[in-house]
Design a protein that fits this description.
The chain is α/β, with parallel strands linked by helices. It has 11 helices and 17 strands. Strand 10, helix 5 and strand 11 form a beta-alpha-beta unit. Helix 4 packs parallel to helix 5 and helix 7 runs parallel beside helix 8. Bound molecules: nicotinamide-adenine-dinucleotide and zinc ion (ZN) (2 copies).
């Protein structure tokens, strides 16, 4: 069958909305009619990499929500007509999956970022008969219809508004899960969140659920710091507009954190992926504080030996340690109950305005663009 999709043909070029042919689902796949799909910063990673490294064309999108149209013969978790949120894919068999920590699946790269099924095939063909990359995070949801890995599919309450649910599949569960699961922030803790975008603001909302004490937000957009205050930050620090912070600014960020927390934060959670910001937040920890890192940067980040052996911990975080089938419905319940108002971060765009959605995210104007089909 045919569908409309946003295709990224070159890493630094615009998305083009095209008609693609979609295969029928295989035995372990689900055909989903998309209602909406959130845009996460990770969909835009090709922009940060050398143009010549781009392997596309590819359909991105990994925060889909929609309705099941057809299921493969071996699919047992969903049926036709179910409302679903799409999250990351995992293998179900590796050592991490065996202990129910699927976000650290040994096959994560292959199943989520290879642009194809594990056998190298894709489910999309363009008008010239050429294959287009699919199965991004098991789903490639910037498409009206997509063939999705069963492990990416989470059934949700049909009474909920599907337009708002997609972002739970990545950005929102990562921010909230970092605080609630990965770092399991104890009540009364002081927390620094660097980067107040989709991950950072959902992390700040989660600090209110766990009952954190001092909460400091850092961002380079004042508008995002204002949002951070609305959702629970007690203090804010305006960072640099440039990607590389001057040494003086880094030191000042650390000093402000030490000052505001009376000697150091218990927890820092980075969502900027900027090495200078990460180090500034790390230096602002107590001697036994923990840094959680979710922002994806390039190159290296370094920490002094002496500051490390003081007793500090550093944790890499993927998808907030979420088990999607449990955590996504739980976050949706918290949202309905009013304690997790992440839907206020969403602005919707028709699929045709996918490039406008990206621009609005990059300018800081919109925190969580959601494409509508
Ligand atoms: N680890 C994971 O599982 C996971 C999941 C989703 C996204 N990510 C990554 O997390 C990061 C954040 O994603 P997002 O969707 O929240 O992005 P976003 O663009 O919505 O938010 C990032 C925020 O960081 C701020 N920022 C960036 N550099 C800064 C600097 N030098 N100083 C101060 N503030 C700065 C930006 O202004 C922005 O508000 C991205 O790198 C994304 O790829 C990781
Ligand atoms: Zn696995
Ligand atoms: Zn994401």
């Amino acid at each position: 069958m045919k569908t409309k999709a946003a295709v990224l043909r070159t890493g630094h070029g615009p998305f083009t909305v095209e008609e693609l042919e979609v295969e029928a689902p295989r035995s372990d796949e689900v055909l989903v009619r998309m209602v909406a799909a959130g845009m996460c910063h990770t969909d835009l990673r090709p922009r940060e990499q050398p143009a010549e490294d781009y392997a596309g064309p590819q359909v991105y999108g990994h925060e889909g929500s929609g309705v099941v149209e057809a299921v493969g013969a071996d699919v047992s978790t969903v049926s036709v007509g179910d409302h679903v949120v799409l999250s990351f894919a995992s293998c179900a068999a590796c050592p991490s999956c065996a202990v129910n920590r699927p976000s650290y699946c040994y096959e994560l790269r292959q199943l989520n970022m290879s642009g194809a099924r594990p056998d190298g095939s894709t489910c999309f063909v363009d008008v010239d008969g050429q294959p287009v990359g699919s199965h991004y995070f098991g789903q490639s949801s910037f498409a009206g219809m997509s063939v999705v890995a069963e492990r990416s599919v989470v059934k949700v309450d049909p009474d909920l508004d599907l337009v708002n649910l997609g972002p739970l599949g990545c950005g929102i569960q990562t921010g909230a899960g970092a605080i609630m699961n990965s770092l399991a922030v104890p009540e009364g803790s002081s927390v620094v969140v660097t980067g107040a975008g989709a991950l950072g603001l959902s992390a700040i909302m989660a600090t209110q659920i766990v009952g954190a004490g001092t909460v400091i937000a850092v961002d380079r957009h004042q508008s995002r710091l204002d949002l951070a205050r609305r959702y629970g930050a007690t203090h804010t620090i305006l960072g640099s507009v440039d990607s590389a912070l001057e040494a003086g600014e880094t030191a000042s960020m650390t000093e402000q954190i030490l000052d505001l927390t009376g000697g150091g934060a218990d927890v820092a959670f980075d969502t900027t992926g900027n090495a200078e910001v990460v180090r500034a937040a790390y230096e602002g920890l107590t001697f036994v504080g923990t840094l959680g890192m979710a922002g994806v940067g390039s190159g290296d980040v370094s920490f002094g030996f002496r500051s490390m052996v003081s007793g500090r911990s550093i944790r890499g975080i993927l998808e907030g340690d979420s088990v999607p089938s449990e955590f996504i419905p739980y976050l949706a319940e918290l949202n309905v109950a009013g304690s997790f108002p992440y839907h206020e971060l969403i602005a919707t765009f028709p699929l045709e305005q996918v490039n406008e959605a990206e621009a609005a995210s990059m300018s800081g104007e919109v925190v969580k663009p959601v494409l509508l089909f």
